[in-house]
Write a structure and sequence with these properties.
The chain is mostly helical. The protein is built from ten helices and no strands. Helix content is 72%, strand content 0%.
Amino acid sequence: MGLLSLLADPLAFLVAFAACAFGLVMHNVAQAWLANRYKDSGPARYGFLSLEPRVHLDVLGIIFLILLGFGFPRPVPFRLYGAKEAQVALMGPLAFFLMAFIYGLLAALLGGGATSSFAEGLSRAMGVMLLHAAIFLFPVPPLDGARVVYAVGSPQARRFMDQLASYGPLGFLVIFLVLNFAGVTSAVIYGLSGLLGTIYRAIGL
C-alpha cells in the first residue's frame, strides 16, 4: 500500500516519492497557468505559478501519499465561472496523466541494470499518477471533478455537491472506499492505462 512497499529499495522509494510530490506540484501549476491565461490573478498572487513546493504541498496530503499512495496538494485559489472554471479544474487530472506519461517513458528508457532502482521508482510513480488522474476526475468535493460540476452542472447537481461537501473529509473517505471496492476506480484507471499504452505504441515503445 502506498509507497512504503518500496522501502526495501531506498533509492526507488526516494525516486517514487520525489516524482509523485512533483506531480502534485504540477497539478497545481497547470491549473494556475490556465487560470492566469484567463486573466485570473489569484494563483499568481499567491505563488501558484512557481514550482516552490511549500506553496503547493500539504503536510497531510504528503502523509497520505506515502501511506496510501494517494495524496493531495493545496487547492489553487482561482475565481472563474462556467466553462472557464471547468477547463481550469480539468487541467489538474490532465497534468497527472501527462506526468504519468513522462514517468513511464523515462522508466522504459532507463530499463534495468544499474538504473533499475530509478526505473522502478519512476514506474511506481507512473501508476500513482494514473491513480490521481482517475480519482481527481470523480465529482466528489473537494476533487477537480466536483469543481467541474459546480461550474457547468445544474442547480440540482450543485446542491448535491454541497450535500457531499457537508460531510467533510469523512464523507470523502467513505465515498472513496465505496468507489474503490465497487471497481469504479479500477475501471477508470484501466481506461487511462489503455490510452497511455496506445500513445506509447504510437511512438514506438
